[in-house]
Amino acid sequence: MDIIFTYDVEFQESDVKWASRWDTYLLMNDDQIHWFSIVNSLLIVLFLSVMVAMIMLRTLYRDISRYNQLETQEEAQEETGWKLVHGDVFRPPTNSDMLCVYVGTGVQLFGMLLVTMIFAVLGFLSPSNRGGLMTAMLLLWVFMGLLAGYSSSRLYKMFKGTEWKNVTLKTAVTFPGIISVIFFILNVLIWGEKSSGAVPFTTMFALVALWFGISVPLTFVGSYLGFKKPAIEDPVKTNKIPRQIPEQPWYMNPTISILIGGILPFGAIFIELFFILTSIWLQQFYYIFGFLFLVFIILVVTCAEITIVLCYFQLCSEDYLWWWRSYLTSGSSALYVFLYATFYFFTKLEITKPVSGILYFGYMLIASYAFFVLTGTIGFCACFWFTRLIYSSVKID
């Protein structure tokens, strides 16, 4: 016996506007929180800008005027503060080779992120195609090797180094090598789980080919061009015998000042960091690159200003070992990024499998390491400009 039935379909008009139909998936409904993030970050920048302005316009102007008015040898011997260490402030630091390597890598990373975000803001890159976005970042990283080699060799030659090929090779392989080792271990774990999310062997081979076939040669080209240029001259002469650093107050202890220096850069980005982590780990798309670009600019300014402020206090305490500390001061914000990622894992995610937890912390370790290199380089470049500016402004016999 056949049963015959019919049904009707009625379309109901939705209250959701057509232009807003993807908002649930694209994180487009949090504009107020994003604006709160921007305002919070701008207040931090404003606070630091006022401090830097006071140092640059009031304190430094007073110091430079007083130093330039010293006429007798007796007065010169009574100098205190940052001018007193003028004969040591540009003395090459320990492990100067690795400092050159990390500064060059940071310049490469900065260039890659800046160009990527500009393209994303202009609409050339679609975040919904995560593979396309990642491919663009990798290609930009490869071609930015030219900047990495140039920057590291310029700094290395200023330190009167001669083994530029050795430093160039380290610049080309240190950072991507560490990232590759971590990534390969994580990928082996994914293979062990027989997951479709594992990166195929052919893709990994292509990445290695890009690395050694294009990025490494470009790094050597940039390094050769940088080393051929005349060395950057110091604004003051360096004494042959290093002066003794006086005992420092507890708050100028390197560990304490470095940890303090990372708080404000992290505070400028932690709200946006929440949205980025949500888009990555809760399978949502991040489309608000306009906000992200603003936060990136604010991060750059914050890292530069906090490092300049703490560097000035350090030099006033007659501690001239500023090279590495300027890198670590803003770079320490990466520690807070990793700690926040740990907090996010235990409060927002429901991951129970050990392998999934290892993958999360492995990828966040890679992101935090890259953030350390980026922010550390920004802080170092700011202090490099600042010290050269103030010591070129005083008359030193």
From TrEMBL:
Its main location: membrane. One of its GO terms (biological process) is protein localization to membrane. It comes from the Eukaryota. It is found in: Endosome membrane; Golgi apparatus membrane. It is a multi-pass membrane protein. GO terms for cellular component: endosome membrane; Golgi membrane. The chain crosses the membrane at residues 33-57, 99-125, 131-150, 171-192, 204-227, 258-282, 288-315, 327-346, 358-386. InterPro entries: EMP70 (IPR004240), MFS_trans_sf (IPR036259). The keyword Transmembrane applies. Keywords: Endosome, Membrane, Signal, Transmembrane, Transmembrane helix. PANTHER family: TRANSMEMBRANE 9 SUPERFAMILY MEMBER 10 (PTHR10766:SF154), TRANSMEMBRANE 9 SUPERFAMILY PROTEIN (PTHR10766). Belongs to the nonaspanin (TM9SF) (TC 9.A.2) family. This is Transmembrane 9 superfamily member. It comes from Canna indica (Indian-shot).
